[in-house]
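Example (one chain per record):
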Amino acid sequence: MTVVSAKHALEAAVEAARWAPSVHNTQPWTFVVSEQEIGLRADTDRKLRESDVSGRELLISCGAALFTMRTAMRCEGFEPVVRTLPDPDRPSLLATLRPGTEAQADETIKALGGEIERRRTHRAGFADVAVPDGVVERLVLAAMEECARLTPVRSPDAIRVIAGLTQAAQGVQAQDRRFSLEMIRWARPPDSSRTDGVPAQGYPREAARTDPHFPQREYAWQHGWGSEADQRGATAVGVVALLTTRGDTRQDWIDAGQALQHVLLEASAYGLSAAFHTQALEMEPLREFLRIQLCSGEYPQMIMRLGVTFDDKDSIRRPLSEIIE
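Predicted structure:
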């Protein structure tokens, strides 16, 4: 292993991590890069203090960045050596990663790496195109590899329950001014030069309703922002899936983030996009109801819908100068 190639692998990993998904595109991470390893740190200034009191969503976002770095490093020809939560005295240090032995990336890893910058979050209904069962099974296996469980919800009654809980949570949050102000802090106005948050073209001004209805975040709250993209026909719910973990510790949240990004990159390679619904998971009584009634006692970390969309949106990310310490 040459010093030059290892250094390039570290640089490629940090560059790739910028494109990981995060709640409201807060990008709540920073990186400390040396000649030998990368330290992934939680940027707690970007924590959602109203909707994410425990920091669960922040750590899921950072876990997604960690899996992205692992994938990029493998694409550069190195097996990553990872330590999560390596120092109890530094709780913001979530993981360290360094190049290990040289290893040729296989076609699966290369395919995942090719989707890192192409993957996009969807915020509307899907086209009425069936998702093959074989693809869903691949996504289930992807989550399993990262110590999490992805469960496709097949029962129409269960799907209606999840949609109803999402509607209920959205309705309660909409009445909470602090919740609303926190969310719109991360909604970018049209033509904004910000490099974080959700851009106005990133969600429809009026999304077509799915049946059952899965409401989207009201990023346009009292502003009328949003894209004018034609949503006619994009009313399919898609495949509803629950991402769960056996425990609910900081390690489990990081694992959930790694599993989430593995699933998303795999889905993107098959032409699928994902829409996220975390409203009910941000209200502990509703999250507990889901855990007991629909998740077999496991802890729900993400509710998502997977499907086909023909949208082609741009994405924004902070420059490296802002995220490297």
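Caption: The first strand starts at residue 29 and ends at 33.
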